[in-house]
Inverse folding.
């Protein structure tokens, strides 16, 4: 390489006149620069041969040191810490969902108010999410996440606080807890008293109207959930963007899929914890369980809801610890270096301009500059039509998803007659694992088949559409209403009775002074549930506690043709056998549809990340969370709960007056409004997807055109540079001392 060049130099010097110093200096300058460039390239190539080939020759040397270190140890630690934080927040969030029925009964509030409490988590997100996503991305992201976890734990402890400052849980019942109890009033009081029928006070001894503090205690639950929402804000946008920034492109989807999968494990334990706590009585340790005269399957049962919040709050506090020991930034992966540089420059030329992208400098944050750039950055993000369309589709789908998940345990309880504990167990052990498997499988499919933006969009749409068609079969898996005398059936056993208040009374109970406001159900020998022993016409009782039996129930004899069967036992009658046979099929279809729909979860999320500019990633995720929580997370539980409330057949009453929690629903109407609203919202989202695909195709073509234009410009620049070197090499040996050629030069 050096011989021809050196010869050309010597020949030029021999033939050149000594007076032509300018030409000689010019020639020497070109020759020296050319030699230096060749020597640098030779040194670089030699160094490359002596070291591992790295990620640029991964196919030829898969065991190279660079490949082994492709994932930085701190990145692995961050993924593990973020997974634990996702697990903790999902644990507490799912436990909140599992206690909805318990809170509703404990504080005597309707479903729409429970929806407001559930939506308060999203309200907390709404307060700070945009600013945390934007400013947090420019600060120390792991420490911001740690602070958020601490706030979440404090909010969880605040939710449990009302249990320790509120009075004991009290219900009105005619069941005496001891044979020697002084509460031995007759189930059928004489009607000779002056009080009007239907307005008799409680059959319990009068304690006076003690103003129940539970009227305002739910405010603490509301505020605690708001604080949980504020603390959860930085976890997803900052955590996901941190992984996507420092993980290799082909591994980012897998890492995010793993994090999302572990976050799905959180609800498994959350619902299992809810199932366990629902079996434990709310005042465990303070009352003698022998005096509790109703079972966990009763509509008045309240479990130890507060215990789970203490456990989840402690776990969330522990999840904050690892983030304090993680760095602000990590080495950039090789595949995210400047593509205009060669592999040799990136790996071996230490003073390469691209080195500044390998380790981001720890520069102090300039809040004034960040605030100044916020509005233009937001305008640029909202000007992306693909992002806006994706956002609208996601908002509608999330309305359907959040409303469905929030009230699904309650749907299982009311429609299939299962206890709160069993409904939570089913959600945790059967439904949630299917979702976790689907999320993980979606990430694996995207990595294995290397799905691009359009491929991810088609895959997510296809799985969602298939799950939609499977969900239509839920309409056929219905159960009939529970037979309740005076509400769903007449006292003679005729079904299809419209709900009217005066239908509580019949000839069989007119001799008793009964209250229509009470809910103290008993199950007659004829399989019909009666609102209270008084309304069942029972005149005497025997036994105590859960073994108590009401005798001489005249209303029971109206339906039962066999003489002598005039007894009733505390609690509602069990569902029919036909409903028990349908329930396993409901679970199987629920698992299958959940798995198929969740397959598109990870590809759909990666579509969001890849359709925007890298510098807008954190803000886009923040706005995404802001919009979904504001327009889906907050309103969905409220209007789902309000619509479900319209199907209530019997409301409970608070001790000092006013409507309490619903005791029994019209299951047929519940099924129609619950499933109809869920699938109706998803139908609207599919219509928006059509325009979304058209915009996405246009976006991809525009990006490809820009990439081709930039590539052609860079290629042309390289060709010009190469031609200039070739011209110089050809020009040097041709120089002589001819005056014409010197003038030309």
């Amino acid at each position: 390489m050096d011989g021809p060049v050196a010869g050309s130099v010597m020949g030029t010097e021999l033939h050149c006149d000594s007076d032509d110093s300018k030409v000689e200096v010019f020639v020497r300058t070109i020759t020296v620069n050319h030699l230096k460039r060749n020597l640098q390239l030779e040194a670089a190539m030699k160094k490359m041969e002596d070291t591992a080939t790295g990620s640029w020759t991964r196919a030829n040397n898969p065991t190279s040191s660079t490949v082994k270190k492709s994932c930085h140890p701190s990145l692995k630690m961050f993924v593990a810490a973020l997974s634990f934080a996702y697990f903790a927040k999902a644990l507490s969030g799912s436990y909140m969902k599992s206690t909805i029925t318990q809170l509703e009964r404990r504080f005597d509030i309707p479903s729409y108010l429970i929806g407001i409490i559930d939506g308060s988590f999203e309200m907390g997100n709404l307060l700070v999410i945009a600013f945390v996503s934007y400013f947090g991305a420019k600060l120390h992201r792991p420490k911001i996440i740690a602070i958020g976890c601490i706030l979440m734990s404090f909010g969880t402890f605040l939710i449990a606080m009302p249990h320790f400052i509120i009075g004991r849980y009290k219900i009105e019942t005619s069941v005496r807890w001891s044979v020697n109890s002084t509460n031995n009033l007759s189930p059928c009081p004489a009607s000779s008293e002056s009080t009007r029928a239907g307005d008799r006070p409680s059959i319990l001894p009068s304690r006076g109207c003690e103003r129940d503090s539970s009227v305002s205690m739910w405010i603490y639950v509301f505020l605690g959930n708001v604080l949980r929402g504020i603390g959860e804000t930085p976890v997803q946008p900052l955590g996901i963007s941190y992984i996507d920034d420092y993980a290799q492109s082909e591994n980012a989807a897998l890492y995010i899929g793993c994090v999302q999968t572990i976050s799905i494990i959180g609800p498994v334990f959350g619902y299992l914890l809810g199932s366990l706590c629902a079996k434990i009585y709310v005042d465990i340790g303070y009352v003698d369980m022998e005096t509790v005269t109703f079972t966990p399957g009763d509509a008045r049962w309240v479990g130890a809801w507060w215990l789970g919040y203490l456990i989840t709050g402690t776990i969330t506090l522990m999840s904050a610890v690892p983030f304090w020991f993680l760095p602000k930034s990590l080495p950039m992966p090789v595949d995210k270096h400047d593509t205009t540089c060669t592999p040799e420059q990136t790996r071996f030329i230490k003073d390469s301009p691209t080195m500044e992208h390998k380790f981001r400098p720890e520069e102090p944050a300039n809040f004034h500059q960040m605030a100044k750039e916020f509005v233009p950055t937001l305008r640029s993000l909202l000007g992306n039509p693909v992002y806006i369309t994706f956002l609208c589709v996601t908002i509608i789908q999330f309305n359907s998803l959040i409303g469905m998940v929030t009230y699904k345990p309650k749907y299982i309880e009311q429609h299939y007659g299962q206890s709160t504990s069993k409904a939570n167990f089913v959600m945790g052990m059967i439904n949630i694992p299917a979702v976790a498997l689907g999320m993980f499988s979606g990430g694996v499919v995207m990595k294995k088949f290397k799905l691009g933006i359009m491929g991810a969009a088609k895959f997510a749409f296809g799985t969602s559409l298939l799950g939609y068609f499977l969900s239509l079969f839920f309409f056929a898996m219905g159960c009939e209403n529970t037979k309740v005398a005076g509400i769903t059936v007449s006292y003679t056993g005729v079904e299809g009775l419209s709900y009217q208040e005066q239908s509580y009374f019949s000839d069989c109970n007119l001799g008793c002074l009964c209250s229509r406001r009470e809910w103290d159900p008993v199950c007659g020998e004829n399989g019909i549930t009666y609102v209270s022993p008084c309304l069942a016409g029972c005149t005497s009782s025997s036994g105590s506690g859960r073994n108590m039996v009401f005798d001489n129930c005249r209303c029971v004899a109206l339906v039962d043709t066999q003489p002598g069967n005039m007894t009733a036992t505390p609690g509602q009658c069990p569902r029919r056998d036909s409903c028990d046979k349908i329930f396993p099929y409901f679970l199987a279809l629920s698992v299958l549809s959940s798995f198929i729909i969740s397959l598109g979860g990870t590809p759909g999320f990666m579509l969001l990340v890849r359709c925007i500019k890298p510098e807008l990633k954190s803000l886009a995720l923040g706005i995404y969370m802001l919009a979904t929580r504001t327009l889906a997370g907050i309103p969905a539980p409220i209007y789902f709960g309000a619509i479900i409330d319209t199907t209530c057949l019997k409301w409970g009453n608070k001790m000092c007056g006013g409507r309490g929690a619903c005791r029994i629903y019209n299951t047929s109407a519940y099924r129609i409004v619950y499933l109809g609203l869920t699938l109706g919202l998803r139908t609207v989202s599919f219509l928006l997807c059509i325009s979304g695909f058209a915009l996405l195709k246009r976006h991809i073509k525009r990006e490809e055109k820009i990439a081709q234009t930039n590539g052609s410009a860079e290629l042309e620049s390289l060709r010009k540079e190469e031609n200039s070197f070739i011209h110089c090499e050809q020009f040097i040996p041709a120089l002589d001392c001819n005056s014409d050629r010197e003038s030309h030069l």
The CA atoms of residues 103 and 519 lie 18 Å apart.
